[in-house]
Amino acid sequence: MWLWELKKFLNIGWEKIVMDNTRTMHTFINKVILESMKKKAEHAARGEKMVTCDLVTLFMEKRLMQTEDMQIVNSDITIMRDMVMTFVFAGKDSTAHSMGWFFIVNMNRYPEVLRKIRKEMNEKLPGLLSGKIKVSTQEQIHGLVYLEAVVKENIRLHPSTGFIVREVMQNTTLVDGTFVEKGQTLMVSSYCNARNKQTWDEDTLDFKPERMMDEITGNLRVFSPYIFSDFGSGQHVCIGQKFAMMQIKLAMATLFSKFDIKTVEEDPWKFTYEFSLTIPVKGPLNVKVTPLTISSLKSQEEQALDDYCTNFRWFDYLEET
Q1: Is residue 252 situated within a structural domain?
Q2: Binding site per annotation, positions for heme
Q3: pTM above 0.85, yes or no
Q4: How does residue 17 score in pLDDT terms, banded at 50, 70 and 90?
């Protein structure tokens, strides 16, 4: 532990490379943000509306609601830079790994769940399955409740990061009586939390999207971020939480409305984790992609009935009777 701290202090080895690259990234991002903020501040000073809806615009509009002073200070640029860095570095692998577990592994493990997703799309967004709608909008995708429940259940069982690390800011005592001292590092395991029977009942290991929905209303349940902890909580909650959820839902609805995605590996239960800072699927994910057929929308019972009717030998039946 102390070795990398020493290298960082002496500015040598990989620590020097990391710091040099970080400075380069900060300089580039600061320049882009500063130029953008200056242009938007000039528009705001003239009373013109900010048309472009990007991260800088949202930040500037929020500040305009809080104060009429649009003078740019260093703290504004630092806040914006940190948000951009979070989106760039934390918003790619984590989302990709979640979709890897979802698209390729779980939808091959649970074909009935996939049929329910398509059934909901057929009922609420038929144009997507028929091809009239190429890509759904944010408003259209919002009504797919079961789809979002499946996404959340996937994230619960397969969090993009296996643990969350926090530094204790002051001496405190945890609810179980454990004393932790200021400066100590605590680690919360998202993977273990998702498998806690006291939180998620006895069937915690089962892939069950219905647990994310209210049994009476059919709406999505709202969980405390300390229970559904995959996006963090408090002031350090993931800034891209809603963006990531919408990105996964849009990608899933678009692909599953047009294609069947099957693993080349015959047994999807053989896939396991590759432990790292994130926890993706281990090994290559080879798949076979085919255009969606009508049979893909049918349940196992419906398909079995169709097969029976297709293979039934009517002439033999008539001769026997």
Answers
A1: yes
A2: 238
A3: no
A4: very high
